Amino acid sequence: MCQDASRDPLPNPSRQVLRDWRVRLGWRPSGGVAGIIPIESRGASRPRMRQATKQHLSPKELGKAVGVSESTLKRWADEGEIRVYRTAGGHRRIDLSEAVRFIRKTGMPVREPRLLGLSALDGPFDPVNYPADAAKLMRAALEEGDTSRFRAMLVSTYLAGRSVAEVCDGPIAEAMHAIGEFWQHRNDGILIEHRATDTCIAALNQLRSLLVRPDPGAPRAIGGAFSNDPYLVPSLMAATVLSSEGWDATNLGPETPVDVLVGAVEQLDVRLVWLSVSVERKSVHLHEDLNDLADRLQHRSDVSIAVGGRVLPQPLKIRRPNLQEVRSMTELVAFTRGLRAKA
After folding, report:
1. pLDDT digit string (tens) for 124-161?
2. In a domain, 122, yes or no
3. Distances, alpha carbon 7 to alpha carbons 11, 13, 264, in Å
4. Do 168 and 68 lie in a common domain?
5. Are 189 and 143 in contact (CB under 8 A)?
6. Are 227 and 271 in contact (CB under 8 A)?
């Protein structure tokens, strides 16, 4: 059904579904604009993990963490190499996300991770000597349910300069796909898969907390998976990747009705909608949902839809001007960079 730009883009039935979904999501007004509590921030059943609580550092703390003097850090700040702000008392402080950005840019070794609030990284960490079998180690941590080790490997992989998209397309996707097959030949396969999912969600959330916060005017993106698709990790990976690219990304998670996606676009002035497809379904039903969403958003020429996932039909037999097929997180990055370049 095609929407006319002069008509109400969100008819009454859609508004009711959106209101019902707000209750389910814990959506609450914030400053006069509807705000969403992302699914990865809600109280889902996942491991209780000690998160990085240190949100800012003094030049002395960061200097000690990377093995340089406080005066050197201050000089770098004066030269604009690292961004600082001053407290009410005039003291310099560095956001944790800025410290992480600086370490990634310079490739400096981390002598004392605990000073960065990253106590899960035991001992010094040097990107130059990063283990070649990192993917194998990450998979082993997931299989064994070793949350601290997996989190440490994920964060250290990022600190070593790998992009979030690279990590998601590589170690995480490979490990989760392999673990997802365990149920067919192991009695504990479902246990391992569910435990690995919880571990992965918690680790990705911590990684997102280390990313530089989007600028106030950053473009907004929302996404999730259609109804009857219960998988959590793929959409969270997309949200984390987009956050790393400077988008203000909100993950609506699995089983998100088309009505909710359309309503969120209107409420939040969104420029991008992403969709993950992780459950095999008849192509006709997937195409119906995609056509429905594309039709109802076509009055917004500034909104694009990106769809991907491991069971997305190849090729996707639907062509719409506002719909883009992406086959990996790396392709998602390339597509969204193109969108921003056109803006």
Report:
1. 666 656 666 778 888 999 999 988 888 888 888 888 88
2. no
3. 9, 15, 17
4. no
5. no
6. no
